[in-house]
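Page 37, top half.
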Amino acid sequence: MFTTTGSRGLYKAPLSKSLLLVLNGLTVMLTLLPQYQDLFVYHLQAITQEHQVWRLLCGRLVCLDIKDSFCSSLLIYNFRIFERRFGTRKFASFLFGTWCLSALMDFLLAEAFQFLFYYEVEELPSGLLAPVFSLFVPFYLSIPRMPVTQVLGRIHITNKSLVYIVGLQLLTSSPFMWLLALSGLISGGLYHSSVLRLQKILFVPVWVSRIGQYILEPVFSSSQPTSETPLGMGATLDVQRQQRMELLDQQLLLAEYNEARTNARQQPQSGLLQWTRLFPSLRHRGQNRVPVQPRPQPQAHQSTQPPFLDNSPVAEEQVDVYFSVPLILSCVLQVARLVEMGFSRIDALEALRASNNDINMATNFLLQH
């Protein structure tokens, strides 16, 4: 359904997984125990007049409506791409910062609505809704838009259309959901742009991140996808074929790299400037000419001839070494960077081939498929 996030599940997204499991679990428990639902109602008057500040925490975390919980869970699952791209700590800082900003925006927008339309907003829908709406800001700005299909030949369906449809469904689920959506969008825009340097004020400290890394991450971390498990173990034929291709690609890269290093050590080039690297046509110079008997020259002229203009097979192998080593090293580093972002090695190799070894184009290609 969501083509922007790939098919790797919640791998390398422990915070998104914890939010989905914990918040949805609490929603199910409150549905089975309706006598405790009043504690999680996001009641603005109770907060301002009766000073029940704890309702800010309870009312802005757990959804009381199953439909709101389902739609927000779909959006959190889709927005896990930001946790993979920026890391868990930055993703948690964004959610924490927008949660604090949206709490202030809720009261300001409620007061503005009462001042303009003489209607007092008593309560708002419960749940982690405003931070979820705030994630639409980086989703709109940083995720590229790619066409998928067309409806009736005029309406274009992109890889982001279904996400907006789910957001629209969540927006129309409650009468005052638009107020939370507006609060979340404003908060997300302020935090993402860092106009007031909010990213340096509202963030998750390093020590909190380390506690979550050592305590919570082992509980909510997901294992690697099936395509990266060893051969066999119930894997399908397609998965086994992809794994064999991946192993062959790795062996080929390692063999070329080892051969290049061996040749570079055995045949070092002399001279400060290698003209054969700057002018590849010099490598084949003289191959198509008719062999001519060399003229005898004095010993002085032979000693002063530049060694880098020699067309012997040794010089050609040396040029191949200098051309292949940087290419292999860059390819290995690019594959390693894509694997660290959560993509499989076979997907990274295919994306680099399709993008002509452009790391940015390959990253965008993997994020869209």
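Page 37, bottom half:
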Amino acid sequence: MIPACFSNPSTLSSTSQVPQNLVTCIYQTQLCNSPAYLTLTWSKSLFSHSLTIYAADSFSITISLYPSSFSFFRNKPGSKSLYLTHHHYQRIKLYWDFTRAEFSHNSAEPESCFYIAISCDARLEFFLGDLYSELSRRSGLVVNRQLGHEPALLSRREHVFGRESYVSRANFSGSMHEIGIECSGGMLVVKVDGEISLVIKRLVWKFRGNERIYVGGLEVEFFWDVLNWINNDSRSSLGGANGHGVFIFQVGDGGVWPQMVGPEKRLMRKSMSMVGPSSTPPALSLSSPSPSCSSVLQWAEESSDCGRSSCSSSTTRSCGSNIGGFSLLLYAWRKD
């Protein structure tokens, strides 16, 4: 699932070819009394802003949020009924409201003043956001702040952009923290809430690896893979080339990688088509990374009690054992 596995690093260097902001989260929840894994992909570019909600073998829907540059095009609250294809066509109903959503750091994912909800047989089964009363008023559902089965965030994947510095925010065991990664002068620096947590020197020789750091007193396994940058740096000094690095922050029994859908899937297909079929081994697919580029993901999977892979219909059994774990996967893209 690393784009560099399928293309030359220079082919994806233009920000016009990569969404300006792309966040994918996977939640473990229930749909119609059956375990389910929801993949939410938030995508924001100069003229569009959308959310894709996907459940393997069940449904997929894309909701258009208001365009990032034109506030007078904001959408109204919405709802839609859908049938779950592998649940004997049981019907669910989605509700959403982003009219007053607040975002930070130009993120595609809202922080407050919004909701996404899913109900089955007039029973609320999934809720994300903070506008409980608004949902109750519009839907007629009895909304409790504590669901019978609280959705669990298993993993988050984000595309971040910069020249030498990359910043993300993530919730580790109930506390929000700012994660910073800096790469310059042949050195990699990891910061948590502005404080240096790890310094890796001689990056040319240590382009892949893993170390333990602490985030708010919580032990976190950190994995990095900057081979893509090092390969580019053969033509320029470290810190001046395009491309992207891969960084993983894993807590507990983590290692669940969201399946690529919607904008990410289109990005992968585009990167593969730009390279041409001769550069991609026939055995590869969109859901299986190249063996030469997947080591950082494999390390993260093997560090868990049992291996992990993407939460598709064939891997839900492994996702079910991930309760209590969390993984943050960052693609850090260099731009001119």
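Margin note: The chain has a mean pLDDT of 75.
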